[in-house]
Design brief:
Belongs to the enoyl-CoA hydratase/isomerase family. InterPro entries: ClpP/crotonase-like_dom_sf, Enoyl-CoA_hydra/iso, Enoyl-CoA_hydra_C. Pfam families: ECH_1. The chain is α/β, with parallel strands linked by helices. It is about 50% helix and about 15% strand. The strands form two sheets. A six-stranded mixed sheet has the order 1-2-3-4-6-9, sandwiched between helices. It is globular and about 60 Å long.
Length: about 270
Amino acid sequence: MSDLYQHGTGDVLTERHDNGVLLITINRPDRYNSLTLPMFEEMNQIWADVERDDQTRVVVITGAGKAFCTGMDVAQPDPTPQDALAMLETERKRVATMLRIEKPIISAINGPAVGYGLSTALLADISIAADDAVLIEGHTKVGVTAGDHAALIWPLLVGMAKTKYYVLTSEKLTGAEAERIGLVSLSVPREQVLPRALEVASQLGRGSQQALRFTKRALNAWLTNAVPQHELSSALEILDFAGADYAEARQAFREKRPVDFPSARTAGAPAK
């Protein structure tokens, strides 16, 4: 459509629906909607556009094809230190904007959601997941701190015990299990995910916009009060990008072999 959302890459699509609903689709289905480095900035810009868009009342975000979003595309070249610092600032703005936007955001989690993808899914105000969708926090598996959302929102959603278990182990959850423990709002059969999300969005689009926005503002005070934890975890994640564990994880992925973290070979080793 010819409006402020046209950024020209085709990696993120937008479509207007009735009742002020905006559908955002992450569009790299051949790469399970993983993000290139430029896409992080594009997604940040889209949320800024949503905030200033008078035509949009409710946002639905989903992924093209079989996945929601599987985080950073690890097949791309390693980020430089400058890339990592730019990403830190981009992510700080992205999270702050998602929390500040008063329009309801609904995530339609149609398939795997990992890392950044899970962050976007859970920072939405309402999250609707496929029963069989795979959700993985994932950061510790690639040798970096869980920095883009976990310290901010997981403890509020599921409590500290479940948070530490799933965030430290990066164990998989299904959408059904995520609903059971309170991590997502609803789980439904896969073919119903987007229709249900659009149905809820349309309902909200017809509702009292002032009441909805003021309610979201009040509820999000719980999250904005926790922003310092998020910024600390994000900074630690960026430091990890320069570490040997992250380099080994990326190399192992490319060679399709198990990861052998250097820190696991040295930490706690018997003194000689």
